[in-house]
Amino acid sequence: MLAGRACLLVEYDGGMQQVCCFKYEDQIDELLRELHKMHPEIPCVSEEEEAELEVEYERRRAEERRRPPLSIRAEREIEELENAIAYLERKPELYKRLSRAAKRRRNYQSRSAGYRWAAAAIMVLGAAALIYGVVSLVCRGFSGGYLLLCLLAAAFLFGGWRLLPTARNNNAAVLRGDKQARVQMQNYIDRFPAFPLPARYAHPIVLRRMQQAIAEGHALNVMEALEVVKADLQTMNADMQVSQEEYAEISTIKPLFLNADYK
User: Fold this and answer.
1) N or C: more exposed end of the chain, with fewer CB within 10 A?
2) 237 & 198 share domain
3) Which residues does UniProt call coiled coil (predicted)?
4) 145 and 241 belong to one structural domain
5) Do residues 201 and 254 touch, judged by C-beta distance below 8 A?
6) Close Cβ partners of 202 (under 8 Å, ≥ 6 residues apart)
7) Does 244 lie in the same domain as 191?
């Protein structure tokens, strides 16, 4: 009730449209990725964005053609990162949980105390309105106005409840979930010889951006590539305009770095 909803606009049957709402935005991204794998013939973006993606694709192709040939060392570093990506993809649930836990921690800790007080006030008003509506329905008989009041009061009541600290939604629980995700990832990558990332950053998107940094000549090795990725993420903010694909990548991995202060 107090925040934006993640929605997917689906167009079908020659122009008919349906809005589908989701609880988390990354659920939409995951759905679109799976849909593209299963049915690559179905467009997953609007015609305008598809044209923008085509322009961006041609720009990247032109940049790749202008790049100097990779050195043997650079090829070896990129291959090492590719092996790490393949290893993470064996258990995608680990890096997905790591990203979700980081997002949840970031979102929870970014909320101001006033936000929670506002939620509490809305809950109190919603509870009072719900009680008044129920009593009115019982004592005065059925009325559309009282029924609508009850429904609206219930919506505000449950909307505010989601924002208040509970047994599963409090600072300790959020930090515990984030720590567990990192511990599970650490236990997994410990079985990989010399994994190129610490567990807190272990995500295929990070590794691919590191590959890109080396391929473009911005870094000579894995450690330098990680610093390039950190610097790029630090310069990105809400005022920058990026493609939907770029936005999805940034929103997935940036909380990992923000929670760790880019260390």
Assistant:
1) C
2) yes
3) 46-91
4) no
5) no
6) 88, 94, 95, 98, 185, 189, 195
7) yes
Mean pLDDT per 10-residue section of the chain, whose length is 263 residues: 68 86 79 87 81 76 72 91 95 94 84 59 66 68 62 64 58 86 96 93 96 90 94 83 78 92 91
Do 135 and 104 lie in one domain? The reply is: no
Alpha-carbon span 137 to 143, nearest angstrom:
7
Q: Is residue 61 part of a domain?
A: no
Are 96 and 129 part of one and the same domain?
A: no
Q: 152: domain range?
A: 113-161
